[in-house]
Amino acid sequence: MSTGADAVKLMKQQVGKAAADRVQSGSIVGLGTGSTTAYAIQYLGDRIKSGDLKDIKGIPTSFQASVLAKQYGIPLTTLDEVDRIHIAIDGADEVDPQKQLIKGGGAAHTREKVVDGLAELFIVVVDRSKLVERLGSTFPVPIEVLPMAVTPVMRALEKLGGKPELRMGVKKDGPVITDQGNMVLDVTFANISNPAELEKTLNNIPGVLENGIFVDLANVILIGEIQDGQPIVREM
Ligand code: 5RP
User: Fold this and answer.
1) 178 CB under 6 A from ligand 1?
2) Is 197 an active-site residue?
3) How far is the centre of ligand 1, averaged over its atoms, from the C-alpha of 158 (Å)?
4) pLDDT tens-digit profile of 34-47?
């Protein structure tokens, strides 16, 4: 294993492949967002190409997911066309021992919560660096906000003890704009003792579309690790 970056890539590839292997022919599949899920989408495409997987349709959680699905030959559908989602595969920024998540590192958590929350089986794909004892210890909580409400929402978040920061673009001047045309606040909380309660409290602030705390949604957590120099996948 030459560099840390190579190891992370290997873990992400393996875990993405392991999740893609669990998809069965005939399924409606929620397609998550992020670099780990991108490998799952790629492997789903490989399985379709080889004839191993037939008759699946994807529901993308972002512009990125729909571009990748088209690139790898996965037919897409929408929530208006289907009455169920059999399985969703998505990444996470933090996973705690109760399978609670922080998501939204790619600013896609609003659509992700809709799609992942509807799935009969929601598989989370992460490398081991995402495992935490307590949510909020390594990653702030992303909150999607209507642009006209950014200032009052920031004040409300400060009153709740959070430290909000407007997410700024990379290789783009100004704030990140979500696929829905909104902005993202990354909010640091000193101590998230009750994620379920905080999730509801945040969504109750007028102008907030959705926050990145996912409680009681994940069914399976697949974790990519390196053991004796080789990538392995274990299930939490
Ligand atoms: C996007 C997400 C991603 O799933 C999350 O940020 C993990 O991404 P990656 O697999 O690139 O580490 O929630 O909104």
Assistant:
1) no
2) no
3) 25
4) 999 999 999 999 99
Catalytic residue among 94, 112, 144, 199: 112
What are the sequence ranges of the domains in the chain? 3-132+216-235, 141-208
| CATH 1.20.1250.20 for the 141-208 domain, yes or no | no
Q: Which of 3-7, 16-20, 72-76 is the least confident region? A: 3-7
Q: What is the mean pLDDT of residues 58-82?
A: 98
Pocket of ligand 1 contains residue 35 by CB under 6 Å: yes
217-233 tens-digit pLDDT = 999 999 999 888 888 99
| Cβ of residue 30 lying under 6 Å from some atom of ligand 1 | no
- Quote the pLDDT of residue 2: 47
Q: Is the CB of 58 under 6 A from ligand 1?
A: no
Per-residue tokens: 223? 């974790």
Residue with CA at minimum distance from ligand 1 atom 10 = 36
Contact predicate 124/103, CB 8 Å: no
Which CATH entry fits the domain spanning 3-132+216-235: 3.30.450.20, 3.30.420.480, 3.20.20.70, 3.40.50.1360? Answer: 3.40.50.1360
**Is there a contact between 179 and 173 (Cβ–Cβ < 8 Å)?**
no
Do residues 38 and 63 lie in contact, with contact meaning Cβ atoms separated by under 8 Å? no
Mean pLDDT of 160-166: 98
Sheet with 94-95: list strands edge to edge. Answer: 94-95, 101-102, 213-214
How far does residue 118's CA lie from ligand 1's centre (Å)? Answer: 19
Distance CA 209, CA 146 (A): 7
